[in-house]
């Protein structure tokens, strides 16, 4: 039994579901916002019985039968079916309770095979941790300063003639559904001292690009997409700002870079990763970040990478050994 942990709007998991439907592998897609209205919880700790019942699909899932877990994008219930009966304080309390029920499910399943383990994802998401690890592994990384000391920041910006970028330390998503995003942006002039001292600035030297690279590792498979980010002005600093028509092509990485991608993935305790590199005009590779739960469906669609197939194979083969 493969358990897919996500939400109703997650299109990426649809690809995995389609792949699973080609097989005889039993699976259940848990849209976590359905707990507890549509998916009821029946946990009996004396009997070690942990059941989820989906009233729409009329399916009961015994968590003891789950062999592997694909962790994607869980979402906490909005409690819309009972919101009018609740005060704001009660609503917040019950949402926190629902979040803790989910955490309990993760712990019940902690000895199964995960892609990726939720706690490893949370640890791996920190870009400061990633940078130190990438440097130790041997990646080239951008010159980087994180500081709210005005003298330190001003010195860094002056040395780089203000050819720098600023970016979030974790992810740029704001709000529950990440409908607002803070992109990596060019820093054209130094902020004033009060702004810098108010909150640490995470800044890096601006690296000239030939293209951006998105590398997907799954188990012992690796795929690399070259994204022609320099073709559009809006995409040159952060390719996600560009149009969906940015040209993508398959890129063959040197063996040494492939091995470093696998090494950082394993060092972060991950079975899957989405790594972002810069390809410089003189064909050097610069590490930017590792997304432990990064998107991949558009690469399968545009470049034919068999990512959903590899995910299902890994969940099946590793789960069978648990």
Q: How would you explain this protein's 3D organization?
A:
The chain is an alpha+beta fold. The chain has three domains: 2-116, 3-Layer(aba) Sandwich (Rossmann fold), CATH 3.40.50; 124-140 and 208-292, ATP-grasp fold, B domain (D-amino Acid Aminotransferase, Chain A, domain 1), CATH 3.30.470; 143-206, Dna Ligase, domain 1, CATH 3.30.1490. Helices cover 31% and strands 26% of the residues. The protein contains nine helices and 18 strands. The chain has helices spanning 11-20, 88-108, 118-124, 127-137, 150-159, 193-198, 255-267, 297-303, 307-320; strands at residues 2-6, 27-31, 39-44, 49-54, 59-62, 68-71, 113-115, 144-147, 164-166, 173-174, 180-181, 185-187, 201-205, 211-218, 221-227, 248-250, 272-279, 285-291. It has a five-stranded antiparallel β-sheet with strand order 16-15-14-17-18, with helices on both faces. A four-stranded parallel β-sheet has the order 2-1-6-7, covered by helices on one side. A four-stranded antiparallel β-sheet has the order 8-13-9-12, with helices on one face. Helix 2 links the parallel strand 6 and strand 7. Helix 1 (11-20) packs across helix 9 and helix 4 (127-137) crosses helix 7 (255-267). The longest helix has 21 residues, at 88-108. The chain is globular. The chain starts with a strand and ends with a helix.
């Amino acid at each position: 039994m493969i358990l897919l942990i996500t939400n109703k709007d997650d299109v990426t998991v649809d690809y995995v579901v389609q792949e699973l439907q080609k097989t005889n592998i039993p699976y259940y897609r848990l849209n976590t916002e359905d707990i507890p209205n549509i998916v009821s919880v029946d946990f009996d700790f004396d009997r070690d019985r942990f059941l989820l019942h989906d009233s729409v699909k009329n399916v009961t899932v015994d968590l003891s039968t789950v062999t592997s877990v694909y962790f994607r994008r869980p979402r906490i219930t909005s409690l819309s079916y009972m919101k009018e009966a609740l005060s704001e304080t009660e609503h917040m309390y019950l949402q926190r309770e629902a979040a803790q029920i989910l955490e309990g499910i993760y712990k019940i399943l902690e000895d199964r095979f995960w892609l990726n383990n939720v706690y490893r994802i949370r640890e791996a998401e920190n870009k400061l941790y990633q940078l130190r690890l990438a440097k130790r592994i041997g990646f080239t990384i951008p010159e980087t300063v994180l500081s709210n000391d005005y003298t330190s920041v001003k010195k860094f910006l002056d040395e780089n003639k203000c050819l720098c970028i600023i970016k979030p330390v974790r992810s740029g998503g704001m709000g529950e559904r990440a409908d607002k995003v803070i992109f990596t942006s060019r820093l054209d002039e130094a902020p004033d001292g009060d702004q810098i001292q108010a909150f640490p600035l995470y800044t890096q030297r601006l690296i000239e690009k030939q293209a951006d690279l998105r590398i997907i590792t799954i188990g012992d498979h690796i795929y690399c997409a070259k994204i022609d980010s320099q073709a559009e002005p809006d995409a040159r600093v952060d390719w996600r700002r560009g149009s969906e028509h940015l040209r993508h092509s398959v890129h063959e990485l040197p063996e040494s870079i492939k091995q470093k991608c696998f090494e950082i993935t394993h060092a972060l305790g991950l079975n899957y990763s989405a790594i972002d590199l810069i390809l410089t005009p003189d064909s050097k590779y610069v590490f930017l970040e590792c997304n432990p739960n990064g998107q991949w469906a558009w690469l399968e669609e545009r470049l034919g990478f068999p990512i959903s197939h590899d995910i299902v194979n890994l969940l099946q083969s590793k789960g069978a050994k648990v």
